[in-house]
Predict the 3D structure of the following.
Amino acid sequence: MNTKVLLNEDEMPRTWYNLVADLSKPPLPPLGPDGKPIGPEQLSAVFPMNLIEQEMSTERWIDIPEEVLAILYRWRPTPLHRAYSLEKALGTPARIYYKNESVSPAGSHKPNTAVPQAYYNKMAGMKKLTTETGAGQWGSALSFACSQFGLECKVYMVRSSYFQKPYRKFLMQTWGGTCVPSPSNETQAGRAILATHPDSPGSLAIAISEAVEEAVGDRSGTTRYALGSVLNHVMLHQTIIGLETKKQLAKFGEKKVDQVIACVGGGSNFAGLAFPFLADKMAGAEIELIPVEPTSCPSLTKGRYAYDLGDVAGMTPYLPMYTLGHSFVPHAMHAGGLRYHGMSPLVSQAAREGLLNPKAVPQLECFQAAVTFAKTEGLVVAPETSHAIAQVIREAKRAKEEGKEKVIVFGLSGHGFLDLQGYADYFSGELTNYDYPAEEVAAAMAELPEFATIG
């Protein structure tokens, strides 16, 4: 009885999968502030051209550079586990598997894109990268990646998470990164927010504004911005997760997968696991793909499909996505990595075409699920990952009620060793559920321009 399947290094994928090649319709283009499509040259102040080419590519397979593979080999391929103990505790006929991305240096899936982004920026002659981070997973990953290529790294961390999770800052510093709480006094965007909301908990949209402002404002031209989710090239880099998973399931002897489940904030973790399976679904396979988000920030389940900015200050293009409005500031829940107002355009398009079945789960159910997982499988997961586990438990119980065998695969996006304050608050009864803030979202959505509407 195998409890986990490991691939050899020579079995690791050598190419990334690009979902764009298989979509029934081409993705809608990003728009400028005038509502007109923008081209590569208008993105070049923010991203290097080699990443812009990936962002707009329609090729199905894109080679992973050897220099990137050499670093990924340190922890990849990651293991696929069978959750026997969880299955037994739930008394379910379902077979549950989880892809463990917590084994990376930064403890999450984020280095899968941080390493290639740092590499491509280095090849383009850049010396510094700026970025935002919610729970700190992405900031940690980019700090690690920059250290491997001799780049400076500046991270604007959402203020609520900065103080909830102080050890993330120290982790970034260990790899040479600089981390400041956002909104900050270091940028015009940050100062504007603090002037009107001095106690702002911050948001990913605010932190993105600050990071982009610093990158664009560098007169030397050697600073660029790096994004840890949402954009097409980030989704692309993460597909190594799902490509490995398919090989490992075959070694477990599984010929059919019924459900693929992962938490979703901006989209990269879900896309990384699910997109290779989505290719099978579009080819006729019966697979249910379930992105799971918080009830307090439910862009996929309650958001509107429209063109919206990725940040508060309007430094980014307008992207077609499910959104709650770029000025919406979610409640300061512990799953900081899921506190984003919008969703990846590719994930959004897949959802709009009916290829996904999004779900939203409240915070207390997620922590309860995480504790159940820790007591059975032994792993303490990040609050973000707990959303996936909560949905897995729902589906496993449904399988028991229906008496149906099925195969469930979920993404364990990161460990929770630096998120224990959230567990402490849960055990002390200080955590609460947050309802969907309809009035706040309505106010944010009212700020969108007329061209934002997508028919």
User: Anything to note?
Assistant: The longest helix spans residues 383-402. The chain has two domains: 17-28+45-64+109-232, 76-107+239-452. The mean pLDDT is 94.
